[in-house]
Amino acid sequence: MKIGFDAKRAFTNASGLGNYSRFIIDSLIQQFPQDEYILYTTKQHQLFSNFYNSTNSVHVVEPQGVWRKFSSFWRVFKLASVLKKQQLDIYHGLSNELPSNIQKSGTKAVVTIHDLIYLRYPELFKPIDRNIYNNKFRRACEQAHRIVAISEQTKQDIVNYFGTDSSKIEVIYQDCHPIFHQKCSDEALAAIKQKYSLPNHYLLCVGTLEPRKNQLNLLKAWHTSGTDLDLVFIGRQTKYTYLLKEYVAQHKLEGKVHFMPYIPFQELPAFFQQATVFAYPSVFEGFGIPIIEALNSGVPVITSKGSCFSEAGGEAAIYIEPGDVEALAQAINEVSRSQHLRQQMIEAGYTHALKFRPEHTIKQLYALYEQVLKD
What we know:
Layout: E1 2-6, H1 8-12, H2 16-31, E2 36-40, E3 58-61, H3 71-86, E4 90-93, E5 108-113, H4 117-120, H5 127-143, E6 146-149, H6 152-162, E7 169-171, H7 186-195, E8 202-206, H8 215-225, E9 230-234, H9 241-250, E10 257-259, H10 268-273, E11 277-280, H11 289-296, E12 301-304, H12 309-313, E13 318-320, H13 325-337, H14 339-353, H15 358-374
Parallel strand pairs: 1-2, 1-4, 2-3, 4-5, 5-6, 6-7, 8-9, 8-11, 9-10, 11-12, 12-13
């Protein structure tokens, strides 16, 4: 097969959409090296220029000539004609969108939809962003021959909000980056602990500091629990961070609550592997990769009820209503104090995490490609 990808975020994005794109592309190249892969991107950031196993069957395509100055327009309006010339079998839009008029390219189109949070929680988005997302996402679902949803929750949202036929949608989970599958050396753990002055025992929370992620309720629950654990936040800071820091100041918790600076991706596993408990109190997500990262790292997980969280955490995690501070405090207390409970959760978590390995999920995606070509 000759397979093309919208690889813009694979080459430029450090967060969820970028991680997903890199995971899909690199895993396919490794498992199915006999095929040809074309990666379409508006540019390449030096941090991600070598994320895949480079072979003669992989080609990167960027806009040329005058289109370099109008790369965003090239990606949306010109790319369909490029695909037609290159005679692809499959084009996969990895981040919620497809090129305009892709149906005229003669290429079978697949799109991954990650979430429809902008429809569930419109108050969290600017009106102009909601309109842009709605136009892109709806059109992609209409144009695509098949849709990949990253969770059952997302599949149901696509059906409910867009009226899409459920038979057109297949749920294919993603894994975390393979770097989380490996145990860090004692030397690496010690180096990270010293570099960032990490406490000996801490509750870890990873994710952008924003209202949807619900870190203020986590902070209150942690404080209420009376646990001996410190609290470590890793994530991009927004205006919401001021609420967290205000609470910390009011209760004189500066010595126990730690807001980490930007952490290079390669250092994240060491933070997970040294944590006593991982908490992910988000109100809603498309999937929740940090949960998978924690399960692979041997850390007990406390997360939210509802949304997709039970898909990510399985029976290994503890689930609490996002607004129930008291129940969250109790869960933190129980897990932090019971080594037996932690060990049970760690073992169950690792077993559950194995179902997301690429040897399972990527084969499922490849079979979808083959089916699309037959339809």
